Amino acid sequence: xxxxxxxLVACMEESELSYVERPVDQLYNEAMDTLDQxxxxxxxxxxxxVERQHPYSIWATKAQLMAAYSLYLDNNYDEAIFALDRFxxxxxxxxxxxxxxxxxxxxxxxxxSVVTRDQKMTExxxxxxxxxxxxxxxxxYARDAKIKLDLTNGNLAGKEMxxxxxxxxxxxxxxxxNRFKTVIDKYQTTIHAPEALHRLTEAYLALGxxxxxxxxxxxxxxxxxxxxxxxxxxxxxxxxQVHQKEKAPWYKLGKPDQPxxxxxxxxxxxxxxxxxx
Length: 277
Hints:
Serine Threonine Protein Phosphatase 5, Tetratricopeptide repeat; 13 helices; about 0% strand
């Protein structure tokens, strides 16, 4: 019994010693100094201490957001998102809520992986950026969100293209067509759209649906007239060579006064790419 009482007293004394109440401005300023020195995790703990000691102070609200920002800089994105959700829930009318949403979107965005991996974080970033644009359309965060939205869409389109190419290689043409159509329908503004139309043309031809292949290639030519993907599609559909053959390497060339094979087989008439159909 005596030993138990002694342990309780010791624990209380240790707890009291570890908790030293200090002025809120001193705590907050020390946390900011620690953040400026790039000790991000320590800064997050110190901002938490501001809220713990002075929960009803205006500084506590600021400290909540700064703790989340410190966690973000420390690449501790999961805890940063948790802290930001808490800030948004506790202070829905605070003027810094748009920034909290933006920082949350960035926390997802920084975790976007290459297209060969799972795209869950890409989808969460996309959802959060769209929310920012819808809620705060005139803010500076919305402007940046639109730029990052294009990059995010490009990543998702790239994943669809990767899967579509795999199906095409495996001769699962219907599955490939569905993937390429997704890119055209949902991500038509990305850099992957021309290739998606070309691959779609290729899949239709493999299935023997030449009319659909021609229509798709025509859409490709109308929207991306100078694209190499369009020329490749035209060559596949019409079975005509448009690209000139490469000249033979110097060590395979004939005599100086003899034409190379590429020159003798070059088409006599040239058509501009916009006159294919």
